[in-house]
Backbone:
């Protein structure tokens, strides 16, 4: 049977409502919306699902093969599959808990589909606060995480490819903003660069805020940054993380920057590390989806907005 939803979560809720929590999802794909949303490119999720096969009672003796299969801990099998994808223990547990428990025995392929559906649902949930068309963009993160390079790449796309009028605010924190290359690049594109806050300027269709990185455990710097962000009022606030850092450092940065309520994550240095399990661990632990990635120090180039399906495919390709 076919079920549709605006998100994977919605489609799966319909599956479970109609076929019960043991339903088996056999295919999940994103297709252009059937409604009026098709005009502006809206997408929806199609889920093909079937009811589980009825369990035929058979006499079980303690040494029969059926007894051994049934007594094999199914939970452990799902967890094992999740671990084999390279996910850390917390992520594996989170995904496992979000899968409705089913009495039916699943083939490996069916189990993978269930996991894929659960992963996509988590990703979709994490995109809720990311606007479709960001207009006021601010990248925040630790010093040297690649914010200014990513901003330079992004602004080139907005200005040259989409022909939007843009502006960059290159503001100081407690330390001076030393992104000279960003100002020079913007000037080359004819994009105005403001180095002091001036709310009286007429709005542009795309405005970017470039701030120096900081350590959120320092309350003075954090206050100053929160103040600048409040004034700028970004509709797209992205926590920028260097993907080449160790997972524990990244998890710590996510935790420290969480009070700023980022809408999405932006991963840089994908040329050095593009591990899909690291991406999923970050998305699952933060509850925030990846907005995009920046790969390489050269401008422009290597700025991508890859969605959950592509990252899921990369994750499964690893196995
Ligand atoms: N290999 C590689 N190097 C990068 C990438 N992005 C940035 N860099 C390099 O990393 C260093 C820091 O990049 P910036 O964009 O200035 O980092 P930032 O976050 O703006 O730094 P602050 O403003 O000082 O906090 C520079 O030497 C960049 O050339 C990337 O994706 N790959
Ligand atoms: Mg910078």
Residues:
């Amino acid at each position: 049977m076919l079920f549709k939803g605006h998100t994977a979560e919605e489609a799966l809720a319909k599956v479970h409502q109609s076929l019960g929590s043991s339903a088996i999802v056999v295919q999940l794909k994103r297709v252009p919306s059937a409604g009026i949303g098709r005009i502006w490119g809206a997408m929806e999720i199609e889920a093909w699902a079937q009811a589980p096969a009825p369990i035929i009672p058979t006499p079980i003796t303690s040494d029969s093969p059926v007894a051994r299969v049934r007594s094999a801990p199914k939970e452990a099998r799902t967890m094992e599959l999740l671990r084999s994808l390279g996910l850390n223990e917390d992520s594996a547990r989170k995904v496992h808990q979000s899968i409705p428990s089913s009495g039916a025995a699943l083939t490996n392929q069916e189990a993978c589909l269930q996991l894929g559906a659960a992963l996509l649902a988590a990703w979709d949930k994490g995109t809720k606060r990311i606007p479709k068309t960001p207009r006021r963009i601010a990248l925040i993160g630790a010093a040297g995480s690649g914010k200014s390079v990513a901003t330079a790449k992004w602004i080139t796309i907005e200005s040259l490819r989409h022909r939007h009028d843009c502006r960059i605010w290159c503001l100081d924190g407690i330390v001076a903003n030393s992104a000279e290359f960003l100002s020079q690049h913007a000037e080359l594109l004819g994009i105005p660069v403001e180095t002091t806050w001036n709310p009286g300027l007429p709005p542009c269709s795309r405005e970017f805020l470039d701030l120096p990185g900081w350590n959120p455990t320092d309350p003075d710097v954090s206050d100053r940054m929160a103040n600048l962000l409040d004034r700028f009022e970004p509709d797209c606030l992205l926590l920028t993380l260097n993907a080449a850092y160790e997972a524990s450092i990244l998890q710590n940065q996510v935790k420290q920057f969480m009070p700023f309520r980022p809408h999405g994550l932006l991963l840089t240095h994908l040329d050095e590390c593009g591990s899909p399990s690291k991406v999923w661990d970050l998305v699952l632990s933060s509850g925030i989806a990846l907005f995009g990635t920046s790969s390489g120090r050269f401008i422009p180039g290597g700025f991508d907005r890859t969605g959950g399906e592509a990252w899921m495919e990369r994750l499964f390709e690893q196995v």
Q: What stands out?
A: The pocket of guanosine-5'-triphosphate (ligand 1) is lined by residues 143-149, 179, 212-213, 268-269, 271-272, 294-297 (CB under 6 Å).
